[in-house]
Amino acid sequence: MNTEQRIPCPVCKTGIVFEARALIQGHKFTCPNCFSVVGIATEALDSVSETWQKYEQLKRQALAGKNQTKNT
Amino acid sequence: MATEKKKSKKGFSGLPIYDIIGKPLIAIARAQSMMAREQLKMILDRCFRFTGEAYEPIMLKMILTRTVLEPAQVPGGTPHLTHITTSFYLPLITIFPINTLGIENADIDFSVEVTSQYSTESEQADISDPENHWATGTGRVEMMGRISPSTNRASEQESARSHENDQMASFHINVEAGALPLTKGLLQIIDIYTNSIQLSDPQEKNNLHQN
Fold first, then answer.
1. B42 Rama sector, left if φ>0, alpha if ψ -120 to 50, beta otherwise
2. Which domain holds residue A17?
3. Count of A-B CB contacts under 8 Å
4. How many independent structural domains does chain A possess?
5. Tens of pLDDT along chain B (211 residues)?
């Protein structure tokens, strides 16, 4: 399954491939066509980081169901 | 209207086989449903804001930096590169890889001991030919069973003895959570949001269109 994420460049509409975790950590990504660089504004990093942690927690809870043995 | 009556019954212990097989599957379906609900709650709580009438997406401020070549200020001068920084807003939901939660595979392992069986039949059934009787589906066989104490055949007898009195039995459920595709509706919403991304500074937008 293709999990590659893209956002369209606001300048030229070319898809910018990004990795969500890196984006939230403050990394920037470059448009392959017009070379514009996009990243999350510094003031928004904290709130999005909190949301990401909540998301990761939910994912861990889902994975915790793996390899369960149930007694009847 | 056909009514059912019991033809024979031997003993009474255990559960119907379909119940034993079905319950773990139902439990998995419920777990999937709970996860979907949690995911939806997370999306609505964290990626949207309820205004009293509708959910509005929480927008994330993004910074865009691009380099432009500016002509020389004075005749005969050299053009120079300038970094222009502007902002745009992106719905938070568009950056979350939310298609990674879901039960991808479930492996259930257990053995069933048939403890008793009985059959039921319709009053309209032809009971003269037992073979034909079952083949035409006018009758029904119910099998009762219980989960074997152990699925390991080497230690089956010993395990059976040790579990004989306490009625304990176990089955193994191996659940794997993995990537599942998003629903078409959610994909459509994300597409709409993603395609409506535009620069928030009108001056900058004009400059870009002129370029």
1. alpha
2. 5-63
3. 118
4. 1
5. 444 444 444 444 677 778 888 888 898 888 888 878 877 887 888 788 898 888 888 888 899 998 888 887 778 888 888 888 888 888 888 887 765 567 878 888 877 777 777 766 555 545 555 555 454 555 566 677 777 665 555 455 555 555 454 455 567 788 777 767 777 887 788 788 877 777 766 555 545 444 4
How far apart are the C-alpha atoms of B21 and A64, rounded to whole Å?
23
* CB neighbour list of residue B177: distance below 8 Å, 6 or more residues apart: A59, A62, A63, A65, A66, B35, B101, B102, B103, B104
Q: Tell me, what's the ipTM?
A: 0.77
Q: List, as ranges, residues 114-133 from B with C-beta within 8 Å of A.
A: none
- At A44 the three-state DSSP class reads helix
**Residue A69 included in any domain:** no
Instruction: Compute the distance between CA of residue B110 and CA of residue B157 in angstroms, rounded to an integer.
Output: 16
pTM of the model: 0.56
Hey, is the C-beta of A60 within 8 angstroms of any chain B C-beta?
no
State how far the Cα of A72 lies from the Cα of B170, in Å rounded to an integer: 6
Mutate to test the interface with A, among B45, B61, B180 (most CBs of A within 10 A): B61
Report the alpha-carbon angle B113-B116-B121, nearest 5.
130
Amino acid at A19: E
Tokens of B89: 């807003």
Task: Kindly determine whether residue A40 and residue B42, on different chains, have CB atoms separated by under 8 Å.
Answer: no
